[in-house]
UniProtKB/TrEMBL annotation:
Family named by the database record: Belongs to the UPF0758 family.
Domain of life per record: Bacteria
Organism: Acetitomaculum ruminis DSM 5522
Record-level GO BP terms: proteolysis
InterPro entries named among the record's database cross-references: MPN, RadC_JAB, UPF0758, UPF0758_N
NCBIfam families (UniProt xref): PRK00024.1, radc
Pfam family for this entry, one: UPF0758_N
Protein name (database record): DNA repair protein RadC
Domain MPN: residue ranges: 109-231
PANTHER family listed in its UniProt record: DNA REPAIR PROTEIN RADC, UPF0758 PROTEIN YEES-RELATED
Length: 231
């Protein structure tokens, strides 16, 4: 005997499923929400206990925003989390990410650096390596498509302009926005960022492709060359 109650033995007011049905999902705690997704616990541990272990594994601790940063290996290291539960959590995070991206896409506007940053932030904020993306727009300022053209430290000596502009030309874009991420919290552009941007603007002018902005994506924030008067 462990002396602990199981989920079935808890009062209805404390059972995640019943609480969700009777009051609504918004009344569930983070651990209870995750427990509903996990469905079952293990011997000696309720689903809410396992959910709390998952949350405590997140850095910063208990911040659901960073749940998708837990790798499958990290999830599997938690007692009570097997392959199925690890995949359930990973799929949940992917669904949330796709919903956010879909909503942001509806609002994307060439005249609003924030709307562009909001669209790419879910994907780029927490990358551990720099990536350079070119977002392409038509003559009516409508978003066409985007492509990752480089991975690694972004500077004018390493990034090939050909890779940037060939993607835009293939899609018949006339305006582009460059985006790259800064792993960590430093948002200010480096000297290399400034040199790279100036070089791309000049090449774009020669090709008839206007570089409208260069946006640096950080941890939940962004830096727009256009907004700062650098373009």
């Amino acid at each position: 005997m462990t002396g602990r109650l199981t989920i079935k033995e808890l009062p209805n007011s404390e059972k995640p499923y019943e609480k969700c049905i009777n009051k609504g999902v918004e009344y569930l705690s983070d651990a209870e929400l995750l427990a509903v997704i996990l469905r079952t616990g293990t011997v000696g541990a309720m689903s809410t206990d396992i959910a709390q272990k998952v949350l405590s594994k997140i850095k910063p601790e208990n911040n659901l925003r960073y749940l998708d940063k837990l790798s499958r290996k990290e999830l599997l290291s938690i007692k009570g989390i097997g392959q199925v539960k690890a995949l359930q959590i990973m799929c949940l995070c992917e669904i949330a990410k796709r919903i956010n991206i879909s909503k942001a896409l509806e609002k994307i506007s060439l005249n609003s650096p924030k709307s562009i940053a909001d669209y790419y932030m879910p994907r780029m904020s927490f990358l551990t390596q720099e990536e350079l993306i070119v977002a392409m727009f038509d003559n009516g300022n409508h978003f066409i498509d985007s492509a990752c053209v480089f991975k690694g430290t972004v500077n004018s000596s390493l990034v090939s302009p050909r890779e940037i502009f060939i993607e835009a030309l293939k899609k018949e874009a006339v305006k582009i926005v460059l985006l790259h991420n800064h792993p960590g919290s430093i948002m200010l552009p480096s000297r290399e960022d400034l040199e790279f941007t100036n070089k791309m603007v000049k090449i774009g002018d020669l090709l008839g492709l206007k570089v409208i902005d260069h946006i640096i994506i950080g941890d939940g924030s962004y830096y727009s060359f256009l907004e700062k008067g650098l373009l």
